Queue: 4 jobs
Job 1
Amino acid sequence: MTEATQARPRLFSGERQYENFARMGDFYPTAPLKPSSAPRPWPRGEALELPEHFDFEGAQRSTAALLEATDTSALLVLQDGALRHESYFLNGSETTRWISWSVAKSFTSALVGIALERGLIRSIEDPISAYVPAMAGSAYDGVAIRDVLQMSSGARWVEDYTDPESDVNRLGAVMAGLATLDDFVCGIEREAPPATVCRYNSGETQALGMLLRAATGRSVADYMQTELCEPLGFQ
């Protein structure tokens, strides 16, 4: 096990993950986002109670047992845009801050689309390295933005959360400050020609973050604040 592996929080150890995921600011640098000046809370519909049991694979299962076995900390039920059920367990609450994990990928790709519409990115057929010169010589050198958005850049990547030396776990060490995200992304090597292999790759989102920063001249958090949080009425 490398020094970097030993130094970082073991977020994917499988033990009491919900405690770590609710206090990521204790482990990593963060950039706070403010609520919208015109918040738009979810409308509430008629209250809906969860069923005691549900059918799965021909057997009746306990809803409470499922929630306990999966360490579920929060459960919301939305129907037709209205909030009909809201429950919290373990250390969850209405005000608990949770890391979004790969939900952030959707926000990042939306921001790329907004920057494209604003003319800050000319085309998603442009090579991402044309906006981020530091990517020259890396897996992203000459790769179209479209391929990075589709996780088909051809970059070598292992998204194995059980392997402490996998790329995604090394990314955790970088987030903890053992290196810079820019250097990490620019050190990723190519494994296949672009647009030939689709592979789930959290490093691609970091590359898109570098693109946004270069194209907009702003941090991803700042750009998201004005382009998504404010107009969408984030609470």
Job 2
Amino acid sequence: MAHKYDMAVFIARMQPLHQGHLAVIETALDQAQHVVILVGSSSSPRTMRNPFTFEERKRMVEDALGLAHNRTLALRVHVAPLNDYVYNDSMWLQQVQTTVERLAWQIGYTNTPTVALVGHSKD
């Protein structure tokens, strides 16, 4: 199956992971060879607003997609942490770009891949 993009990037807090997140991920998998899921608020302490750690949310994604039982899919989905930078959008954007570039290199892209930013239409 030919994909429109090399990589699709989905940024979400996933506190908790829900069916809407999974629908976006499924759509991204249809559109791109690789899906990068950047999990926001990754270094934030547990609070009522952020009850789960990054590792717990990463495991939720992996379990919901069945990555432990599907090696082909596991090679296409990449989950990485994304920290918050209060009042510093340029640092946050730089972190997003650096993380995507690092993952593209680790995946094996030697040229600049085609990248799509995916999410819910309200975002």
Job 3
Amino acid sequence: MLSIPLPFVVSLMLLVLAASLVARRSEGTRLAALFLLMCALTTTVVGLRWLLDWAWLRALQPILAGLIPVLAWWVFARARQAISLPWWHWLAPVVIGFSSVTYP
């Protein structure tokens, strides 16, 4: 029997949801679709990490996980008013990325 890891199923569902948002062609749905694509990418990396134990996936996984809260804040804040993302919101993902890459 074919075995598909659960993160790939979740990624597929997120991709379908993002595609349905893009198909609406509304201005407000583009950012939500972008956020869903980021979540789909993250869960795909989790699934690949289950299947393949590559070093670059181990480094990429915490970086993507650190980006999700920043993008979530930006998408939800932007839904209320047009604001730009402050630079200090990128500080945590940068520190996580640097720590992930330089960890022995």
Job 4
Amino acid sequence: DDLDQEAEFYRLVKTPHFTVPVLIVLLDFSDTEFPANLVNPERSHEDSWAQLMFGLNQGEGNHYWNEVSNGIFQMQAASESYDIANNGVIHVRLEESAPTSERYQVENQTWIPDALNKVSDYMDLPAYDSNADGVLTNRELSILFVINLPFSRISGAGAQANILINHSVNGVEVQKFSRTLSDYSSIGVNLHELGHHIFNLDHGEDASGTTMMGSGCYNEDPNITKFTSTFSKWGTRPAHLSADSKIRAGFVEPMVVGESLTQIPLYSALSSHYNVIRIPILDGYALIENRTKEGYDASLPFAEGHSGGLIATKVVQFRRLLRTDPDVTSYDFADYYRFKDYLDEFTIGGYRIYNISDPGEKMTFDIEKLDMAPTIIDYRYDYWVPDPDRTGYRMRAFLPADTEEIDFSTYSQSDSPEDRYYTINLKAIYNTGDVITVNHLADWESSDPYLNLQKASVNYGTDAIIRFKFDTTQQYVERSTLSIQYQDYQHNLVISNLPDLTNP
């Protein structure tokens, strides 16, 4: 059997099917009522949310997890006695009225503790403390609060996970909660937050909605509506998790390859033999997977006439899809995938990936381990500029190592530049094909305190960055010189046309 011969190249985790208890809490205020425009008027709001999150039909929560995990994982509806018992949904109403102005940080209000106290009337929370340590962790019971407020009343993101609450009720402490809004009545955003909450998954850089933990949670299915709307398809067909997220969730074990090999088989995400190849690179590793325009990946924006391809992701302290050209600024998905006669070769980490087959359930490719010592051959800078093709979006501008000046007016800016920071990044380009950020290893100095340069800061889920803000307590200067030194590279870079924020 061919699959027996190929067994060494793919390794699915043979973990028994596992579940995590999940509770959905519909949170109303004294003067609010969950949206009444149900697509299916035969169902109550409670029953509708239970079906959305735990249902097994296309566009429902456990249907998604079943496909994405290859049958390994399901959410288990928490046991409770409210109305329709044991469907995992409890509807609570607070005594206070809903706010009608300003924005509120949910964890700083009494809403969640008060709701948890009411929840305890309908379920035995201590029963979920499986190790009897007095604390409910996310894996013991994940709680998603659906708050009946418009986004205009929420400070921060409309949905969030892993929020510390440490609220004691009935002798057990609920450690963290996740939250969403009543308007987010499709699986996309809600499963994205539960991906954070249950599996502790990070965000990852995304290309045109290709991963659930990126903007892929917003992907639409033209045939499925949110149950509170007869027209919106938003978030109804989220993309698969990336290879990295599937590994971290325990759905697949990568095959580590460190030598030259030929005809390595790679099976698509919907195949029962789905596999991931991992190769070492200078500052981490790269994952290679096969994605096809099927199932929940039917929304992937392959170029016209294309239906799949090989995708590589670089994983260090951040996750980043590997472009065919590292200096490409486009978000077009065509810059990221490869197959026969279509961008079918690249080099990373001293390995040449080539001879990539046609897209399909099974693809093959060759790896050649190159005989070379990693050496820096150049440097470059990048920073954020407005995307000329997408209003309200930004993209990276790439500049050569000998750039003498950056005009600050070209930066992507907010309406209030004094309220935010701006970034500048130095990256080393290696002969192996690696492009590595060296911000945190370089020495940076600003010639003027008005441009307040801050040392390398690690953005959540992204990269180590150098950032600057404008210190309005200092004397204004129109231009400031940044002195940068890393190993034998030394350079002065001027940031000009700085805004005068000292006299608002």
